[in-house]
Amino acid sequence: MSTDVRAAAERLKSAIDRHLEACIDKGGEEDPTVQAAYDALREAAESYDDLLFDVSDEVTPWEFADAPAYDAMEVDHPGVPSRVTVLVRRDFAVHSAADLVEAGRRVLREEDEDDETLNATDALAISLEAHGIDETAAAADAIGLRWLGGTTWLLEQDVEDDTMRTAPFSAVQESRVLHRFVEDVREPRAGVDVTRTARLLAQRDDRPPAE
Questions:
Q1: Quick check: pTM over 0.85?
Q2: Residues 45-58: pLDDT tens digits?
């Protein structure tokens, strides 16, 4: 095992050298060579840290933040965002708490569980987790909801944004909106009757939205 940790230490030293060289020679922001060297350095450091602890119950002074859930990539086409965010909103009125509770308990029973004390809010959360927002909207009347409409926004996002886990809706800035899809309810009846209208928010050239 001591041989393994020594080998890990050598890999870490090499990774530090490669990362330094990549930083010195980088061709600009978001240089893929720097990103690759960073990833290799992070992996080597974590490996050394783990093996060192296994061998000696000692640790390094380094702290490792969660790795990004994506790789930042250069975009070759001017004006094309390298990262986007999709925000979805669906509005409902609650017209039967009892139906909501029954819908949630039905999901639980399908999983061989049940809860006679389930409330309407928790039942709706169970239904959403089991079926997703689109199926829930399609079945709104049957589970005690009344569909009121919705909207989906497509926004340009900063590639350095790391708020997904801490403040996921902080990116809601109308200046970043690329497209907006509005869903209006027409003559509501059993089931969902939705007219979907796509609106291009051409804010950068001040043209009005397309109807």
A1: no
A2: 989 988 988 888 88
